[in-house]
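User: I would dearly like some help making sense of a protein record. This is the protein in question:
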Amino acid sequence: MSEGNKETPQELLARLTGFTPGPWNVQASEYGNYVVCDRGYPAVTDGRPDGKANLELAAAAPDLHRIATEQAAEIARLRNLVSEMADSLDYYSPLTGRTIETPTSRTFRAALKLTT
């Protein structure tokens, strides 16, 4: 994991690969609720109050994966943009021969560290 034991978007995406592709449908019968995927394998609830909610979550897995993938890509794009902005705010000092970090660029880089 990255600094601070928080997952990066790339690490999160690496974990989000284990769902059965849909389409999934939640169906009800006299025996309970069940989910059927396009392969025709049903999963029956065991009568617990949260059973139907769990099946609906399973049915939503392909959409949730797509959304998570899109959001992770957008987060990575925005992080790169903030990093580029911070770099553009620094300036080269001919007196010291070094690049000087401005207060604003330091703030941008600190924000990037908080969000990893």
Observations:
- The mean pLDDT is 75.
